Amino acid sequence: MENVLEQKKAAKRKRLLDAAYTLFQEKGAANTTINDIAKEAQVAKGTFYLYFRDKTEILDALVMQICHKVFRNACIHLAQEDSACLADRVVSLVDYILEYFKQDPLTLSVLRRNFTWRPVLDAELHTSDPVLEPAPTPHPQQPCHAGTDRGRDHQPGVRPHGNGGFGGLRRHHRAHAGRH
């Protein structure tokens, strides 16, 4: 019975987030009221306050959800890359994120003033996930092409060897943790 109750709560919270997302895209966060969100989610206004303190909190939750989704997808994409060169991998990660928002400008409009990677990076870099595990060191025959006009794909269809992952940033994060 408790599991059913938790599922219903999760479904209501998701409806509120989905409603806020839709309205923030259509009207902008500043022009959206809590009443609007509750009505769109088909819940009473008081129900909104069971899940979120105010509009800022739901906006923060949306930003975190979107950033987490984009970052996870970028890491999965990165794990499929063959380059072990950190610079190539960073370029690939940034390319993925830029392309994502180029394809989905409405999502970018929701994030425009509230964008942050810090909580997402903190959460992702402290999990044990094979996508984020250390990458092997580059092989000597594997030149690093980031920042050149050759880019990651120096020959169409041919990529350097390597197993992917987000290890370089993870190692850097662990080595410098607590130094900020």
Secondary structure layout:
Elements: H1 2-27, H2 34-41, H3 45-51, H4 55-79, H5 86-103, H6 105-111, H7 118-125, H8 167-176
Helix pairs in contact: 1-2, 1-4, 2-3, 4-5, 4-7
Notes on the structure:
- By secondary structure, the protein is mainly alpha-helical.
- It contains eight helices and no strands.
- The chain has helices at 2-27, 34-41, 45-51, 55-79, 86-103, 105-111, 118-125, 167-176.
- Helix 4 (55-79) crosses helix 7.
- It is globular.
- The model is unreliable at 134-141 and 147-180 (pLDDT under 50).
What would the principal axes of the Cα set say about the shape?
A: globular
How many β-strands, per DSSP?
0
State the secondary-structure class.
Answer: mainly alpha
Gap between N and C termini, in Å?
Answer: 46 Å
Unreliable runs: 134-141, 147-180
Largest sheet: none
Mean pLDDT: 75
SSE ordering: HHHHHHHH
Short description:
The protein is mainly α and 180 residues long. The protein has helices spanning 2-27, 34-41, 45-51, 55-79, 86-103, 105-111, 118-125, 167-176.
Essential attributes:
globular; single chain; mainly alpha
